[in-house]
Amino acid sequence: MNKRTQLEAAGWRVGDNADFLELSAEETAFVELKLALADYLREIRVQHAWTQAYVARVLGSSQSRVAKMEAADASVSIDLLLKSLLKLGASRKQVGQVIARVA
Amino acid sequence: MNKRTQLEAAGWRVGDNADFLELSAEETAFVELKLALADYLREIRVQHAWTQAYVARVLGSSQSRVAKMEAADASVSIDLLLKSLLKLGASRKQVGQVIARVA
DNA sequence: CGATGATATGTCAGTTTCGACATAAGGTCA
DNA sequence: TGACCTTATGTCGAAACTGACATATCATCG
Questions:
Q1: What whole-number distance in Å separates Cα of residue B88 and Cα of residue B103?
Q2: Is the pLDDT of residue A56 over 80?
Q3: What percent of chain B has a predicted confidence (pLDDT) above 90?
Q4: pLDDT value at position A2?
Q5: Structure pTM?
Q6: Is the CB of B60 under 7 A from strand C?
Q7: Strand C positions closer than 7 A to protein CB
Q8: pLDDT band at B67 (very low <50, low <70, confident <90, very high)
Q9: Tell me, in Å, how far CA of A54 is from C1' of C5?
């Protein structure tokens, strides 16, 4: 899944390239930051060979919401992503590094 | 303002030390992460000698909300803090470093 | 081809967060 | 002291987010 597909899935209107560039620098940075956290969440889950359903139980949430977290869905907040990452064992430092790492 | 006072202001029940320790490791990490972002927001504003009212205009928000952001008020999300920081010119990298820097 | 397990998508009611406003509290100057 | 500027706190209706559920899609077996 490429970045643009991810952005669209995340609920951002992305038409032609001109539309794509409509996002301001901060908006782009914010969305990509969110995508990075979502990817990291999936990475942690996959590396542990956990299912979304299992992660949902650990987090006190549902499988569908975990799927949406990993997809950086528009209905998912960064608060939720951060809380989830920390609860799954990620450290503040690791999270910060994921955020600081600019693609 | 010390960390505990900040936590209380942010809406976290903090009684004696035992109560203070009731927060799980992830909860503590999350709250401190939020406080770090709030402090960073204030730092940026003060360094530029901006008033909260001015920052509010730039962000398209209100002075009271900016005050609450800097206080890491419970009604302020990390999404809002991140969007605000980016809009004020902070880079993803800088934000990540603030988050990664563990007190 | 099913059947089974995993992941994705759509929706909803309850909760949280939002900007805005009013107003209180501090600080500084004359 | 009081006028003025800045920051803090409380509240509200509107908007966004949440967990949950149903259901769809996808992959991997036999």
A1: 24
A2: yes
A3: 71
A4: 55
A5: 0.89
A6: yes
A7: 5-12, 16-23
A8: very high
A9: 13
Written as six digits, the tokens of B64 are: 């009271």
Residues on A contacting B at a C-beta cutoff of 8 Å: 26, 29-30, 32-33, 77-79, 82-83, 86-87, 91-102
Which range, A8-22, B2-16, B63-77, has the best average confidence (pLDDT)? B63-77
Separation between the CA of A9 and the C1’ of C25 (whole angstroms): 47
Interface probe for B, chosen from A23, A27, A28, A30 (most Cβ of B below 10 Å), is A30
- Quick check: A75 CB within 7 A of strand C? yes
Count of C-beta atoms within a 10 Å radius of residue A22: 13
What average pLDDT does range A44-55 have in this prediction?
98
| Mean of pLDDT values over B30-38 | 97
Identify the structural domains of chain B with CATH numbers, from first to last: 3-100 (1.10.260.40)
Instruction: Output the average pLDDT for chain A.
Output: 87
Is it the case that residue A21 has pLDDT exceeding 90? no
Q: Which ranges of chain A would DSSP assign to H, the alpha helix?
A: 3-9, 17-20, 25-47, 52-59, 63-70, 78-87, 92-100
Number of CB atoms found within 10 A of residue B50's CB: 16
Q: Tell me the chain B residues in contact with residue A84 when contact means C-beta distances shorter than 8 Å.
A: none
Comparing every residue's Cα with the C1' atom of nucleotide D6, the nearest one is B51
d(CA A37, CA B45): 27
- Which residues fall within 8 angstroms of residue B33, CB to CB, at 6 or more apart? A82, A92, A95, B78, B99
Neighbours of A40 (CB within 10 A): 21
